[in-house]
Amino acid sequence: MRLEGRMRLGYYPLDPAEATRMRRFLAFPAEQTSAVDPCAGTGAALLSLTAESAARRYGIELDSHRASEAKSALDEVIQGNAFDVKAPVESCSLLYLNPPYDFEVGEGRNERMEKLFLDEFFRWLKPCGVLMLVIPFDRIYNCRNILSPHFKDKAIYRLTEPDAVRYRQAVVFGVRRSAAERNRLGDHAVNQANWKLQELTRRYEEIPALPDERDRGYAVPPSGPVRMDYRGLPLDVVEDLLAKSPAWLQAQRVTHAQRKQFFGRPLTPLHAGHVGLCAVSGLLNGVFGSGPDRHVAYWEATKVVDRTEEEGEGGETVIREKERFSQRLTLLFADGRIKLLSEKPREEPTEEAASGECAPANGEAEVRAADA
Predict the structure, then answer these.
(1) In angstroms, rounded to a whole number, what is the distance separating the alpha carbons of residues 235 and 63?
(2) Of 90, 134, 253, 305, which sees the most CB atoms within 10 A?
(3) How many CB atoms lie within 10 A of CB 238?
(4) Spatial distance between the Cα atoms of 150 and 67, rounded to a whole number of angstroms
(5) Roughly how many angstroms between the first and final C-alpha of the chain, as a whole number?
(6) Judging by beta carbons within 10 Å of its beta carbon (0-12, 13-18, 19+), is residue 141 exposed, middle or buried?
(7) Could you tell me if 55 and 129 are in contact, meaning their C-beta atoms sit under 8 angstroms apart?
(8) What is the C-alpha to C-alpha distance for residues 36 and 303, in angstroms, rounded to an integer?
């Protein structure tokens, strides 16, 4: 997952317009039903999908701020790791699943999170319960071992809102089979279902778009309340107690060491080496200037390679490379401009030196645009 996605804990909410279209595919009974979202976010998606129904809404959310918002939208919300929440099998009527688009990180064989979430939570659906799975289209086939034997009446649609197109999302509708129906399935039927999944998801553009008006319907069966038990760590309590932990008091001396401050003028003038050491050690970093020229200065050491070519005794070309460190200054201005102060490349670099930074012939430096 990209860094931005990790900072959001893999949170990619369903577009409200897509939720409205998906809601038209569902038919709720007059009796009470139970709907579960293991990646609830703010709860807005599940609330839209169960609008104007007697559904009791359950959510699980890892982020504490989003969990607080979800508590105002859903009937019951657990803040914590979804895999630490347990519920009776075959207890809910509707499962909406929009898991993180990432790989599991562990000691053993790592798998996609989409498959792990589906494998964990499809068991909560009762027979004839409805699944709505929103994932990137190219991950649907990875879930075939669950979708093919355990779900019937499947339909796949391509989501068309801008954010959905960006992540190439598709929604899978399905109805869970009963144990008797699964037992009647043969290997040939499962293989045929796998082949159909592969054909339907071969090309993103060929998947039919989710229509504004439904072309089929899914009846959500009635069900009673769901009892969810959280067996993980109380994350908010642990976070509050962490600051008082003796182990943290010892570790923060290294992980959050206070930056040393230096003041005053040196007794003797600094030569170039002293200035370079002060710069790359961060002592010359800071905020300078005023108005449009106000900027943040950040120095860093970069490794450069000087290449020279010589003719050997046998007429061969001998290329010599010498590594050294240089300084680079990054300037971030108040209006968003970024400039770099680094060594100027040679005017006519050789082909071998064109791919690296070179030492200037006269020791001068110039301000250049930031690297793309």
Answers:
(1) 10
(2) 134
(3) 10
(4) 31
(5) 21
(6) middle
(7) no
(8) 53
Q: Collapse the DSSP code of 172 into the 3-class scheme (helix H, G, I; strand E, B; otherwise coil) and give the result.
A: strand
* Token reading at 96: 């909406």
Tokens of 273: 């080496």
Distance, CA of 80 to CA of 70 (rounded, Å): 13
- Which amino acid, 202? R
Retrieve residue 227's tokens: 């009892």
d(CA 84, CA 232): 5
Running DSSP on this structure, what letter comes out for residue 351? Answer: T
- pLDDT, one tens digit for every residue, the chain (372 residues): 444 444 455 677 899 999 999 999 999 999 999 999 999 999 999 999 999 999 999 999 988 889 999 999 999 999 999 999 999 999 999 999 999 887 765 555 578 889 999 999 999 999 999 999 999 998 999 999 999 999 999 999 999 999 899 889 999 999 999 999 999 988 999 999 999 888 888 888 889 999 999 999 999 999 999 999 999 888 778 878 888 888 888 888 888 777 666 677 778 888 888 887 888 787 888 898 888 889 999 988 888 888 888 888 877 888 888 888 888 889 999 888 898 888 765 444 444 433 334 334 343 444 444 443
Specify whether the CB–CB gap between 338 and 331 falls below 8 A: yes
Sorted by where each starts, the structural domains of the chain and their CATH numbers stand as 3-237 (3.40.50.150), 272-369 (no CATH)
Residue 257 DSSP code: P
H helices present in the chain, as ranges: 3-7, 16-23, 44-49, 64-73, 113-121, 144-150, 162-166, 179-184, 187-200, 235-242, 246-255, 272-280
Quick one: tokens of 223?
């069900």
Token digits of residue 90: 């075959």
> Would you say how long the chain is, in residues?
372
Are the C-beta atoms of 343 and 303 separated by less than 8 Å? no
* φ, ψ (nearest 5 deg) of residue 93: -100, -30
Residue that is written with structure tokens 């038209």 in the block: 24
- Which structure tokens are listed for 108? 């053993």
